[in-house]
Specification:
By secondary structure, the protein is mainly α. It is 62% helix and 3% strand. A two-stranded antiparallel sheet has the order 1-2. Helix 5 runs antiparallel to helix 7 and helix 11 crosses helix 13. The chain is globular, with a radius of gyration of 25 Å.
Length: 324
């Protein structure tokens, strides 16, 4: 793996798929990590399955990388070798017989979502967006709550949301034009009428503050709200509410998908909402929902419930059924 190959691969992802700066930087970092490993262990092409498994152990045991980091680095490496094999069939991928386990998403349970919304409403009061004053700026707590609600009902990526402009929202607050991964545009709907109204009033205030090309969400300094800043807000909120596995924007995205599927929305509609290019990416939420169903059924063991019926209950029921 030469440095030129690293650069060529990353450039191809940029030019062919229009991937963002952060994704491209992560690709380059992942490939540099593997290049250091191959150099230290004197590995050269063709690499084998055992070499990949040794790299996995290196990440886990020697570098102490988190499971999410290990998964990402292996997925990047697999993509690199698939790209290289596509360009030169004489260079097969060592991942042919290697299976990479994909972590199941961790959505936020319904009780926690309810607690977050109740806390946010109590803190913000949403006066500028739901009251009569349509000129006063919204408080930061009100903006945070609005973003949380939008994440829950739209499943937007936080980068998609923080990159929104005032002009990207319809006048009635019911539709959002989203510029997603690969510069692919899609329409996302805001279904809740009260949220539409709050969103409409917020956008009305923002349009009066500046041009329609201005960023929709601002930080306390009046500049575009960054994803990292919003993540800090969620960490603070998690600590205040005592939420373990703290809240993240992507967990809200997982929750949006899981809740819609659990409520019977067709998976292809969820795919369109999330902006997934491949249906298989969305299908993981069906597995999450099935797991939730299994856990619920295990908590309520029907046979055990029947065994524990008291004899008097059965006798009383039989007596009611006897003809008089």
């Amino acid at each position: 793996m030469s440095r030129f190959d690293h650069t060529a691969f990353v450039n191809s992802r940029r030019d062919e798929r229009s991937l963002g700066h952060h994704t491209l930087r992560a690709y380059a970092q992942d490939l540099r990590t593997f290049a250091r490993f191959t150099k230290a262990h004197h590995l050269s092409d063709p690499l084998s399955k055992d070499d990949i498994l040794a790299y996995h152990r290196h990440l886990r045991d020697e570098l102490g990388a988190k499971p999410a980091t290990i998964e990402r680095r292996l997925v990047t490496l697999k993509s690199y070798y698939a790209w290289r094999a596509d360009r030169n069939s004489a260079l097969p991928s060592p991942f042919a017989d290697v299976r990479i386990s994909v972590r199941m998403p961790r959505p936020i349970d319904r009780e926690t979502l309810k607690a977050v919304l109740e806390y946010g409403e109590g803190q913000s009061a949403m006066q500028p967006m739901s009251g009569t004053d349509t000129t006063a700026p919204a408080s930061q707590s009100a903006v945070t709550l609005l973003i949380i609600k939008l994440l829950i009902v739209t499943g937007l990526r936080i980068s998609e949301l923080t990159n929104l402009k005032v002009s990207d929202v319809s006048p009635d607050g019911s539709q959002i034009l989203v510029n997603g991964k690969g510069s692919k545009e899609r329409i996302v709907f805001v279904p809740n009428q009260q949220l539409q109204e709050d969103f409409r009033r917020f956008c009305q205030i923002r349009s009066k503050d500046g041009s329609t090309a201005s960023p929709l969400f601002l930080n306390m300094a009046g500049r575009r709200l960054r994803a990292a800043t919003f993540r800090k807000r969620l960490r603070t909120l998690s600590k205040r509410l005592g939420i373990e596995h703290h809240l993240t924007p992507h967990r809200f995205r997982h929750s949006a998908a899981t809740l819609l599927i659990e409520e019977g929305i067709d998976i292809r509609m969820v795919q369109a909402l999330l902006g997934h290019a491949n249906l298989k990416t969305t299908e993981i939420y069906v597995r999450v929902s099935n797991q939730a169903l299994r856990c619920a059924l295990e908590r309520v063991d029907i046979l055990d419930v029947l065994r524990n019926l008291r004899g008097t209950q059965i006798v009383a029921k039989r007596a009611r059924l006897q003809p008089q």
